[in-house]
Amino acid sequence: MAGEQQNTFKSLLEILIVSTKLGLTSFGGPIAHLGYFHEEYIRRRRWMDEKAYADLVALCHFLPGPSSSQVGIGIGVMRAGILGGIVSFLGFTLPSVIVLILFALLLHSFGYTDAGWIHGLKIVAVVVVAHAILGMAKNLTPDVKRKTIALFAVVTTLLWQTAFTQVGVIILAGFLGFLIYKHHTLDDTSDEVKFPISKRVAIICLTLFFGLLIVLPILREATGMYWVAMFDSFYRAGSLVFGGGHVVLPLLEREFVPTGWLSQEQFIAGYGAAQAVPGPLFTFAAYIGAVINGWQGGLLATVAIFLPAFLLILGTLPFWDALRRNPNIKGALIGVNAAVVGILIAALYHPIWTNSILSAVDFAFAAVLFSMLVFWKLPPWVIVLTGALGGFLLTLLL
């Protein structure tokens, strides 16, 4: 018994060390994160075989939420059970959470919201989201039908800017995808995945996931409690995002800016700063929470926005082998992914572009930053530092 506990402790410590290393060095967004994971977990340490890793990645792209974080959680669970998943998540996520909470506190304490370097970070946000849209559009809208679904999402989300519009667009796009692509087939010869979670535990996690989606808004209205409202907003954002971290931007903006919890300038400045840190982009929630209510708000926001990822990965992987072979599910997901591209394009225009590109000089600077990122292939942290420095210098020169 003692030997088994010691082995478990060693496994957890190993997971913590490796995931923290990744959390400190994994720049470049979710696709880059998956490359880092493959190198560290699969090639170097051989914790999983190639097919099991590919299946896990496929599942996490199928689910809403932060795909790279869900892959990391899944690997931790496979290595050392649920505790392994928690430890893997903490190592990968906490470095960027801590940095963004500190950034928010400094921003609040010293009143930097009107500084030139903050405007530079807002221009960085334009560049990063535009780059993300180009990559996603190429992969997710390759044909006219999917481009049309994306166009529908753009027009709808721009003309009807409500908290429910994006959810409705995603649901309708899923239905259209089911109708159009229900006979769409993909070559899938991978083996069945073995996962150390029982179907009973999985059903409990799924029940909790959907239960919180229903109960939290009711509690919010019934109690009027500040903390419940925050938890509900972040939990809903983490539950309804398909397509990765950039797509959470419009959901969070709708939840917190119109309500006055933080200003548009604070929101976009924090999003620009989030590009400078490694780890998952969903940690942007920690910044928002800290702006609203200090470090306690930052931690609450982090737990709330990542909780759906935990519940979904634990609740669906035992059933994934059957789901991934279902053409109806695949068709619906194709439609949802196309709509995600449209939602991102709408978010690029408003609030990002309308609050960041205010002059010809801003546009010219954005073009330079975009070239640095896309054509010269410079790392994101270089773009962020250049944006902040350039924004500061522009305020001195103009």
From TrEMBL:
Q: Which Pfam families match?
A: Chromate_transp
Per the record, membrane topology reads: Multi-pass membrane protein
User: Localized where?
Assistant: Cell membrane
Write out the transmembrane intervals: 15-37, 82-105, 117-137, 149-181, 201-219, 226-248, 268-292, 299-320, 332-350, 357-375, 381-397
Task: Note whether RNA-binding occurs among the keywords.
Answer: no
How is this protein annotated for GO cellular component? plasma membrane
**GO molecular-function term, one example from the UniProt record:** chromate transmembrane transporter activity
> Per the annotation, which location comes first and is thus the protein's main one?
membrane
- Keyword tags: Cell membrane, Membrane, Transmembrane, Transmembrane helix
InterPro entries referenced in this protein's UniProt entry, alphabetically: Chr_Tranpt_l_chain, Chromate_transpt
The UniProt family comment states: Belongs to the chromate ion transporter (CHR) (TC 2.A.51) family.
Give the protein's recorded name: ChrA protein
What is the species listed in this Swiss-Prot or TrEMBL entry?
Desulfuribacillus alkaliarsenatis
Lineage in the entry?
Bacteria, Bacillati, Bacillota, Desulfuribacillia, Desulfuribacillales
